[in-house]
Design a protein that fits this description.
mainly alpha; about 100 residues
Length: about 100
């Protein structure tokens, strides 16, 4: 019986190690920041990106365009504001075409 959720299997080793450290630090971002020798905002950003990556993996959207845009944003190949704009415009255009 495979009890490991699919979203975990899609994470890389670095993400898994971050989650491990986060749990061992009892969820204290301040302690995780000290362990990585980085600032609290850096760890918070890392956690926010990990949350987004997990959400993206869980969504399993049928629309590959939106999934691709989100993945590019998660990989820092596209900033989040541009990704939001592209997705918003795409959805608007798609909705207009569906009603035409």
């Amino acid at each position: 019986m495979d009890i490991i959720p699919k979203w975990i299997s899609k994470l890389d080793d670095e993400d898994i190690q971050f989650i491990r450290r986060f749990l061992l630090a009892s969820g204290s971002l301040k302690r995780v920041a000290a362990e990585y020798s980085v600032t609290y905002p850096t760890v918070r950003l890392r956690l926010d990106r990990l949350i987004q990556k997990i959400k993206l993996n869980e969504e399993q959207q049928a629309d590959t365009y939106i999934s691709t845009i989100k993945q590019l944003a998660l990989e820092d190949k596209l900033d989040f504001n541009t990704a939001k704009l592209l997705i918003s415009e795409y959805r608007k255009t798609k909705e207009e075409n569906d009603h035409a």
